[in-house]
Amino acid sequence: MDVLPLLCIVSVAFTGLTRGSGLLPDGPLNATVGETVMFNTSLPPTEKPFVTANWKFGAKNIITANIVNTTGPGYEGRITFFPSTASLELRNLALNDSGKYTINITPQGTEEISGITTLAVYARISDVIVTLSSTDLVEFNSSVRLSCSSSGSSPSFHWLNGSSEVTQSDRVQLTDGGANLTITNVTRYDEGQFSCQAFNPVSDDKSEPVNISISYGPENVNLTLDLPQEYYGEGSDVSLTCSAVSTPSAQFLWFLNGEKKSDTGTGSKLRLTDIQESQSGNYSCQAFNSKTLRHETSQPVAISVLTRVANIVVTLNTTDLLEFNSSVRLSCSSSGSFPSFLWLNGSSEVTQSDRVQLTDGGANLTIVSVTRYDQGPFRCHVFNPINNGTSDPVNISISYGPENVNLTLDLPQEYYGEGSNIRLMCSAVSTPSAQFMWFLNGDLLNDTGPELRLINIQMSQSGNYSCQAFNSKTLRHETSQPAVVSVLERISGASVTSSPNQPIEGNPVNITCNAAGSVFTREWMKDGSNLSQDFNKKTLSLQSLSKKDKGKYSCRISNPINSEVATYIMIVNYGPDNVQIKGPSEIHLKKPLTLNCSAESTPAATYTWTLNEMEIHNSPVFTKRTTELSDSGNYTCEARNDVTGRTSSVVHHLSVTGTKMVLTADFVDSLGYFPGKARCLGGCIAGIVCAICAVGGAVASGGYYFHTKQKRTKKSSNSKTVSRTGSGGQDNTAYAGGQELNYADIRFFQNNDGGRVQPELQNNSSEYAQVQVANSPPAASSPPTYDVHMQQMKRSAPQSGANDAQLYSQIRKT
User: Quick count: other Cβ atoms within 10 Å of Cβ 506?
Assistant: First the structure.
């Protein structure tokens, strides 16, 4: 950025700050009498006090702040000065606090700055009241003035009619700063709830609404009938209503055929009760406004009164009729003016035809050669322009039938099981109701009536059933079509069996479905799925059974009357297959051993373990807490299924690795007691070391040869136990356990006097003892403990000199 423009910006900003531009907010600040105003400067808070700060109201000093604050007269207790920003709070405001306020500030190290603003203090608006110049107004003839007054300073005014603002127009004038509202030539639309809203910059208030009522009308005079009809019957009640647009409400006068009715009053409703024919004519009403002194008359309404229809009666000339052989005449009579007749059969109108004749203006109805559809009920409907009426129904009894004789079974089935209950029903179209007789294979039964019940039916009751209907009036009869009833024996005792009883994989098996009763179908299912290819087979044959054939077999045996389901759970016996041994192929000496043998077999297989062709265990898991070298070899697991009679085996080779032996002087002492010596000294140790080296080399070579031979032949070999007894030593054969010696690691350590045992000849004569590696815990006979050894030394050994080296030995296995 260029330096020159930046300097210009800084200069202008500093100049504005010096002159006080923006130091105080733009005025005026509006406040309310009795309240508080805050003059906030735009300066950020400073920790360094200003050299001086001076607030003034016009020329009057408010406060001067430097080392000591000086408050001007009349401001004690009304102000609070904030020294960090030079802001001022002024409380308990009065109207004479309105005016210009200035501040002059001299910050430390800079020039004086100043600011100016204006405060306007207002009294709150209250007590707004509206008064009317007149309350008795007539539309188009009157004017009205509304005046608004209030307390408070500098009020402005706003007029409302309801929620709508009143604005100036040709008929509306606002004067005296809006305090007066004048409306000339008032109309009905000037009515309303007028209110005045007075306000100043700090408050506002609204007057209570004032209602302006304007008299107008009457106009739009309208006469209506509550239930308008072209004709009214004598004795009816008729109501007429007269309405008009009018304020105040209009008064009404009533006229019949142009003559004023004196007995009706001045109400808007005229009630004519129990009207008579003499009251027919043209009715009208006249509306009158007592304020406007205007009146207006409605259009006339015509009312016509007639005599009502009543006393309607239907009579018959005969009542005993036979279909196609008889005729009948129905006559209708009534009172009333100008009756008309309409005949109904049920809800259908009866019209004239070849068999139906209407005479005497429809008052008489004649039907020839009656049919069943002419039974009725017949009614006569009589009407005139004012009312109508209908006679009570009259039924014509016509005998016919029987026909459409129908035999039905209550629960129709193609077949019925013995012991069932059957209900047969016979129906016929007949009036009067038909009488019924029953037949089995054409032979008359003793049963009568429309229903035949067969209880605990047997096969001997199978056959063709029919019924015959007879009408005692028409003397006709008709027989139904036969209904076949077939009785069967129910299915029971369903079962599914297999042959052989224990199916074996790969062998054939037959599943047979049997039941007592009449078997129509057999439906085979396996695990809920249909075996459609084996539908209706009694025996389900599986030629070569496989594992996938296992599951739930269902056989549903059915006939038309019932069914039963028998189930069989197919368990496929197989195996043992896929024999496996899980476990290590190589394990370190003295470690625990676990071998798991598994096989796929149903039922579960039994297991036999052999090591190098010798049986050692009989369960799926072979475990040994501590392994020996003799545990190396071929482990065979044989699985056997006692149902299938099959066996299967697998061989697992295991190698047990050798040990590392650490020889120290303590180990030598632990080998046993040497007669004539307190301890084995340096020469003795050297001899032992040499012997152990020779033996270790030989054993290592032999172990390697033996291990190689094992891998080549895959057969186990018997281990040999080496037993040597040194002078004063013990026989360790019992705890050696016949174990193999694989590898030994000989190390040399210092003796008690600090000398180091070396593998070389010593001046002292050396004695030799047998060294044997024992890889299992001691048996019944074990080497002596250190305490026992010390007791033996005390009993039989001579005391050695002080310079004799005391050596200690220890064996550590890794």
Answer: 13
| pLDDT tens digits, 734-745 | 333 333 333 333
Given a contact cutoff of 8 angstroms between Cβ atoms, the answer to whether 527 and 487 are in contact is no
CA dist., res. 57 & res. 178, Å (int): 34
Bigger pLDDT: 710 vs 205: 205
Backbone phi, psi, residue 283, to 5°: -105, 140
With beta carbons less than 8 A apart as the criterion, state whether 7 and 87 touch: no
Residue 43, helix vs strand vs coil: coil
Q: 641-668 burial by CB neighbour count: b if 16+ within 10 A, else e?
A: beebebbbbbebebebebbebbbbbebb
707's enclosing H/E stretch is helix 682-713
For every residue of 501-522, DSSP letters joined together read SS-BTTS-EEEEEEEES---EE
Positions of E strands within 268-419? 269-272, 281-289, 294-297, 301-303, 305-306, 310-316, 321-322, 328-335, 340-345, 348-349, 356-359, 364-367, 378-383, 388-390, 398-409, 416-417
d(C-alpha 628, C-alpha 678), whole Å: 35
Contact 250, 220 (CB under 8 A): no
Distance CA 457, CA 487 (A): 8
- Three-class secondary structure of residue 440 per DSSP: strand
Sequence letter at residue 732: N
Q: Supply the DSSP symbol for 266.
A: T
Contact 619, 594 (CB under 8 A): no
pLDDT one-digit tens code per residue, 506-564: 899 999 999 988 888 999 998 988 887 777 888 988 889 998 988 999 999 998 888 99
Rounded CA-CA distance 315/527 in Å is 79
Contact predicate 283/272, CB 8 Å: no
Which amino acid is located at 705 in the chain? Answer: Y
- From 304, 312, 362, select the one nearest 335 (Cα to Cα): 312
Which sign does the torsion angle of CA 149, 154, 156, 162 carry?
A: negative
CA nearest neighbour of 663 among 680, 645, 646: 680
Determine the number of helices (DSSP H) and then strands (DSSP E) in the chain: 5, 65
Cα–Cα dist 630/637, whole Å: 18
- Alpha-carbon distances of 665 from 10, 302, 671, rounded to whole Å: 98, 152, 10
| Interatomic CA distance for residues 608 and 618, integer angstroms | 5
SS3 content of the chain, % helix, strand, coil (to 5): 10, 45, 45
> Any residues with CB less than 8 A from the CB of 697 and at least 6 apart, and which?
none
Give CA–CA dist 560/98, Å, rounded.
113
Token digits for 341? 């007749």
